[in-house]
């Protein structure tokens, strides 16, 4: 039985990054088990099937690994570093558990099969540590490599699979004008990329599941008198960090949401409201959609707070992927050496994935159906002397996994 990467077999859901509640949602100082459920299932389940192994994007062997040690690539990433310690309030652990109830992760099925998908709030939520590396919206410079020596994918262009590429042979793409057409590492027009002349790498899906969130949620704790520190200085440091993270996110087309927790209640500490109001003023974040405050309260209040966060960010996900769809549809094929049918299939697949990220609906289903048609058209141009039937069947089966409900 063939194994498939989670990028293909799992439910597509928009990526949410949460910083401040501990790596994998565990308290700071916790020893992490690499074989735990929070580890990358791609690396765990596919180790026995070399043809379908897709390394996690945080590993050096990944094609989309963010190599911060390479000085030539440092301008391609936005490094979001947290200077303030992780949240210690008890409500932090409760919030992790409640947010995970909306987290589909690598699941193959819906969280609640008895509920209509569009009525569910499904996200791919990742809890991170003090550092997050966000690829900038501009294209990165790929490593230099010989396109003729690197195999491309028979399905979506993944480097993990070896087979002939889709379209003309690589040799006709080696002109200087073609090599400079695109600098994206995932572009089929980049003659220095391992995905040269492919259709769509699986790593393209992986990037939106692991590296490119639509929202970045930073969680901080409001200091109290019990901490024996200067509260004015602490609030100033907190405001500066929130403002910096907000600026880094917005400059890269990522929504930012700040959540402030406190171990004290407002009833016994009315000055907390004034301090939070000042934080909102300094950071220019609105009360209902920019900087949310959760003081100590009842379990029901924490549950309602988590639900409000899940509902708040849903329109942001739709807006984010709507913009992506529009961008895909506006693009035209400028390299005439690349097969037009492959280009149409590539763009249709991108649009269909973006549509499903917003939620499975009649619209996303029709987008997948249109994608099927374009993929079938693209397969008709393959050279039938190079085992193309294997390529065709895998290509269609891959899309079947992606479009399942």
From TrEMBL:
It comes from the Eukaryota. This is Unnamed protein product.
């Amino acid at each position: 039985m063939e194994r498939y990467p989670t990028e293909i077999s799992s439910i597509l859901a928009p990526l949410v990054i949460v910083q401040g509640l501990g790596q994998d949602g565990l308290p700071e100082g916790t020893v992490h088990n690499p074989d735990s459920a929070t580890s990358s299932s791609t690396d765990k389940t596919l180790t026995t099937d070399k043809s379908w192994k897709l390394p996690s994007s945080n590993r050096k062997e990944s094609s989309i690994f963010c190599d911060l040690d390479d000085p030539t690539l440092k301008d391609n990433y936005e490094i979001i570093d947290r200077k303030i310690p992780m949240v210690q309030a008890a409500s932090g652990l409760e919030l992790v558990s409640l947010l995970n109830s909306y987290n589909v992760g690598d699941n193959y099925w819906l969280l609640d099969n008895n509920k209509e998908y569009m009525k569910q709030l499904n996200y791919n939520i990742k809890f991170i540590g003090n550092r997050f590396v966000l690829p900038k919206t501009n294209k990165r410079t790929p490593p230099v490599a010989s396109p003729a020596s690197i195999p491309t994918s028979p399905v979506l262009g993944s480097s993990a699979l070896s087979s002939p590429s889709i379209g003309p042979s690589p040799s006709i793409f080696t002109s200087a004008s073609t090599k400079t057409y695109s600098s994206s590492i995932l572009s089929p027009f980049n003659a220095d990329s391992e995905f040269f002349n492919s259709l769509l790498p699986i790593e393209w899906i992986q990037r939106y599941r692991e590296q490119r969130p639509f929202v970045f949620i930073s969680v901080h704790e409001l200091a109290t008198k019990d901490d024996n520190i200067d509260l004015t200085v602490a609030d100033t440091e907190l405001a500066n960090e929130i403002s910096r993270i907000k600026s880094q996110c917005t400059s890269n087309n990522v929504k930012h949401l700040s959540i402030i927790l406190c171990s004290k209640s407002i009833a016994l500490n009315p000055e907390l409201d004034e301090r939070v109001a000042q934080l909102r003023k300094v950071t220019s974040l609105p009360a209902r959609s920019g900087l949310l405050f959760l003081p100590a309260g009842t379990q029901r209040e924490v549950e309602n707070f988590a639900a409000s966060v899940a509902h708040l960010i849903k329109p942001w996900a739709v807006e984010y992927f709507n913009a992506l769809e529009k961008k895909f549809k506006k693009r035209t094929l400028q390299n005439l050496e690349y097969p037009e049918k492959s280009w149409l299939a590539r763009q249709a697949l991108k649009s269909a994935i973006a549509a499903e990220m917003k939620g499975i609906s009649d619209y996303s289903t029709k987008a997948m159906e249109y994608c099927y048609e374009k993929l079938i058209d693209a397969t008709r141009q393959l050279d039938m002397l190079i085992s193309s039937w294997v390529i065709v069947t895998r290509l269609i089966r891959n899309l079947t996994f992606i479009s399942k409900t």
